[in-house]
Amino acid sequence: MLTVKSKFSFLVLMLVAFTAMANNIVEEIAWVVGDEPIYKSEIEEQYMQMQYDTESLEGDPYCVIPERMAVEKLFLHQAKIDTVEVQDAMVLQEVDRRINYFITNIGSKEKVETYFKKPLPEIKETLMETIRNQYTIQEVQRNLTKNVKATPSDVNKFYKSQTEDKIPYVAKQVEVQIITLNPVIPKQQIDEVKSRLRDFANRVNSGESEFSTLAILYSEDTGSAMYGGELGFSERSRFVPEFASVAFSLNDPKKVSKIVETEFGFHIIQLIEKRGDRINCRHILLQPKVAEKDLTDALHRLDSLRSDIMEKKFTFEDAAQYVSQDKDSKNNKGIMLNTKSDEGSTRFQMSELPQEIAKKVDEMQVGDISEPFIMRDPKSNREIVAIVKLKNRIEGHKANMSDDYQVLKNMYEESQREKIIEDWVKKKQKETFVRIEEGWKNCEFKYDGWSKQQ
Asked: What DSSP line would sit under 167-225, residue for residue?
């Protein structure tokens, strides 16, 4: 998996490669797959990127890298046959995200253009092709492997066939129940926040200030503030309903929206551009602050609730359902769901829990209920008050069928997908013209069918 740093460096190298081709530099061809050449410069650039990321390669890089590129070309050719199409909206969203990343790391749009020696529209065009190819290959592979499904019998046979060193180690996991309260925010605080936002809107509408400047200075959405409040092209479903309703009703980029209240706080919004069913907009978020007294009151309420549970007046599960304000868990007996896992599991590794919860759970025994504590809501970033119950702890261990069925099922299905892809590549090798130029043939390839094409 590419890190943020390696993704950045990879894209830099791809942009350099496309720049060289655009300038009609005569390049040495290493391979030809179908009617598609693989240039020596492309291989060198990928090798540089791997060295930059200290990525290890099993084998000669001048064998491994061009073979990888050849396999990619097989998938892209298959995509043409199958008329695989990637949604423009998805590609555009990723391009916008990466352009924003460049701007953040290099400093400004102008500095990005200077760095790549081309205007931003051309940079975007290059990225469009790179990202579209990535998504296209993923879609071809997804179509090839979409019918992979595992039965318990399949998983059991797979597990029994694995040698000891192939069975994964599963780190310590916990299952946690939670009850939260959102302290009351004084009306005065809300009025002050709204007054500040109205002032910002007036300054922008009158031309006194730039919306993006105010967002950088004052917005409490740290993720977008560094981009001047810009959120990138998005569909309606990305936003909470209250925000989407106002954002998608905007038509004049020079005007600022009315104040919008969501679970995250209060916003004003400015339209940048509309493209079909997607928009790009800026926003400024301000969050009313919880008074110390209100936090203390909420702590006392939860302390009293905890005492009632300990005295068995009612269960933690009942209290979660009727008292908790955590929307994701209150109707699930207070059990937290791990949204970072593919299956929405109830199990968390300690590093996956919010920091404040992990600190409490680490000191608890199964069945214990914590003292009330203050934490930041991971979604809204607001201060809330919580108590947690440690429902279960699974110590670190080698995976087994009774405790880790899903882990083993994923392993089995991934092995089946890899086999399907490998068999497909071998078949396509026989059907595709491949020429490897002198100086690039003396290799031990993963797929030995290349040499048979000569």
From this structure: SPEEPPEEEEEEEEE-PPPPHHHHHHHHHHHHHHHHHHHTTSS-HHHHHHHH-S-HHHH
